[in-house]
Design brief:
3 domains; 607 residues; Rossmann fold
Length: 607
């Protein structure tokens, strides 16, 4: 769209997006603009330098993202909330960007932000008060105009409920510091980096922990999942927390029953209680072990940061310093890990049965509270949580479940905790984008040759709608559960919702699209659930269960399972089915939920 506007107007259209994979979606248009000499300015928001190359969510290398297909790349200094800093440098960079773009081509501006990104209520009150005065002055003095305000005074009257013939957008350069950019490498070297160089040192640190918490983020390496995790689970008092996407490779490995028995369900509430109550078994934890990607769950992040005084062992995957939480862990390379698991580990500690019993009782209470709430005191409105809980009673164990980002990947731990030990859970948490969710899930289906489920949001589903063209390639049943909560409702959990509620039009993007007609257009089976009563009807649930039973293979031998993720086929030919015109293996179930009630429900279950 921006390309088309600039193609005719020959004026640079401004594209603005969030960090991570968002900017990458502009690439085809940027290439075309470059080769057609069409003016365009792309501003990508970015994470600050201290979150680069430490495994932080939605953080990628955005410098020179578009390579040689832009006239110039401009890196702005990190913006923050220090009002005393001079915005002139950023203003000069923007002027230069416009001049370059007018010469005929795209220019990329990368704008990193520290938190808080949103204005505080105090800042917004000041902004509102001054804006009202400025608008009043222009109405009294007809010689003045809002358009003549200096760049640091530009306002949006629609946010202030003020009538004005001219709408202005806020300055992009307010509060930009003039300090020079600090690279991620320099930022990291200022921290105290602790490496464990020898397995003996690692052995000593781990065995000194009397009650360690083992946390597995998404996408652990095969070595971490199949070898290291069972090895860690031998600790008599070790307990395990799994984020969605941790069990990517499935549960079919030797000693998996030991690992499963130590997994904590309902851990968000347990962590919350440990911060609020003087007595909690989680207050006894004296060390932490971290595998896989960096955790994204806010409760886990707060727990790590609050307990940075405890020893933390960070088994890294591919980032050199995977610690976006600044919790000062000991970093352990794969080489040291390989050597360590060969040790004959001896624990002189005995199991603390009372402590384990307390944790087991907490998770039993949580699972019981879910059952009681959704069977007895459930809301009359259809909620995201109710959908998750209902699906946890329908989807058979061992069926792989793929989650899209945003709320779905977060809601699993809250509302379907038993999936953590019953099903392989898969997610895309590397850059945490919503790109290609359905397509990736289809690839998982082809590789595992298993029936599977996808739980996705309406925006992620619509964004990848042409994945459904590949439905005819699938050889096993796949059900896509679409939670339609009005488009991007996760943004209602941001502070901006309370500070500037009128600005939510920039974040919430409900789509007036009939998913039913889309499904029919692609020749897929479709079911629509619109209220709580319908959710608990047996007919549609039985149909879904029947789909999962079709061609469901029996358990494979443990030797094959140990060498192939999930139930991967033995030969390459098995993942290249012949094209047919029958997409009947794919079914879509849409749930139309109430976003506001869903958010209240989440808050209640967390606390």
């Amino acid at each position: 769209m921006a390309l088309g506007m600039s193609k005719i107007s020959r004026r640079p259209t401004l594209l603005c997006c969030t960090s991570g994979t968002a900017g990458a979606n502009y690439y085809p248009a940027v290439i075309e603009a470059y080769h057609s000499s069409i003016p365009m300015i792309i501003i990508t928001a970015d994470r600050p330098a201290h979150l680069q190359q430490v495994g932080a969510s939605q953080t990628i290398q955005q410098k020179h993202l578009f390579g040689s297909h832009v006239l110039d790349f401009i890196q702005l200094p990190e913006a923050n909330t220090n009002e005393k800093e001079d915005p002139l440098r950023a203003q000069e960079e923007l002027i230069r960007a416009f001049q370059l773009a007018y010469s005929g081509g795209p220019v990329h501006i990368n704008a990193p932000f520290n938190k808080p990104f949103e204005p505080t209520p105090e800042q917004f009150r000041k902004y509102r008060k001054e804006s009202e005065e400025w608008v009043h002055d222009t109405q009294v003095d007809t010689s003045r105009s809002l358009a003549k305000l200096s760049t640091d005074q530009l306002i949006r009257p629609e946010l202030l409920d003020l009538a004005s013939p001219t709408k202005h957008k806020p300055s992009l350069i307010e509060n930009s510091p003039s300090s020079s950019n600090v690279t991620a490498g320099l930022e990291l070297t200022s921290k105290k980096i602790q490496w464990i160089a020898h397995p003996e040192q690692l052995q000593e640190l781990y065995t000194k922990m009397s009650k360690p918490l083992i946390v597995v983020g998404s996408d652990p390496t095969p070595f971490q999942w199949f070898r290291l995790l069972p090895f860690l689970a031998k600790h008599p008092n070790g307990r395990i927390i799994l984020e969605a996407g941790a069990s990517l490779y499935g549960w079919e490995f030797d000693k998996s029953n030991i690992v499963q028995a130590k997994v904590v369900l309902g851990w968000e509430k347990s962590l919350y209680d440990s911060q609020q109550l003087s007595v909690s078994p989680f207050r006894s934890i004296d060390g932490m072990v971290r595998l896989g990607k960096e955790v994204v769950n806010p409760s886990l992040a707060r727990f790590f940061s609050k307990h940075k005084h405890l020893p933390q062992l960070r088994f890294i995957t591919h980032e050199p310093y995977e610690d976006a939480l600044a919790s000062n862990p000991y970093f352990i390379t794969p080489e040291v890990s390989f050597s360590w698991v060969e040790f004959q580990q001896k624990h002189t500690l005995t199991a603390s049965n009372g402590w384990h019993a307390e944790i087991d009782e907490l998770q039993k209470d949580y699972v019981d509270s879910l059952r009681q709430y959704f069977h007895q005191a459930r809301s009359s409105q259809l909620t995201d949580g109710a959908v998750f809980y209902r699906l946890s009673t329908i989807i058979p164990s061992s069926i792989p479940i793929f989650f899209s980002n945003s709320f779905p990947v977060r809601d699993q731990a809250l509302f379907a905790p038993t999936w953590s030990v019953n099903n392989p859970l898969i997610a895309q948490r590397g850059a945490a984008g919503i790109d290609g969710i359905s397509s990736t899930a289809f690839g998982v289906s082809l590789s595992t040759d298993l029936p599977m489920a996808v739980v996705t949001g309406d925006i992620a589903f619509l964004y990848d709608i042409n994945a459904l063209l590949s439905a005819r390639l699938l050889t096993k049943p796949l059900v896509i559960f679409v939670i339609n909560n009005g488009g991007g409702s996760i943004f209602t959990s941001l502070p901006i919702q309370q500070a500037v509620p009128d600005s939510m039009d920039w974040f919430l993007t409900p789509q007036k699209v009939s998913i039913e007609h889309l499904a029919k257009g692609y020749g897929l089976s479709y079911t629509k659930i619109v209220d709580s009563d319908q959710l608990w009807e047996a007919r549609w649930a039985e149909e879904v269960q029947q789909v999962f039973q079709i061609q469901h293979e029996t358990q494979l031998s443990s030797s094959r399972r140990n060498h192939y993720p999930l139930n991967a086929p033995k030969t390459k030919e098995a993942v290249k089915p012949e094209s047919t015109s029958d997409p009947s293996n794919v079914r879509i179930v849409e749930f139309v939920t109430n976003a506001e009630v869903s958010n209240t429900e989440r808050t209640n279950f967390r606390s």
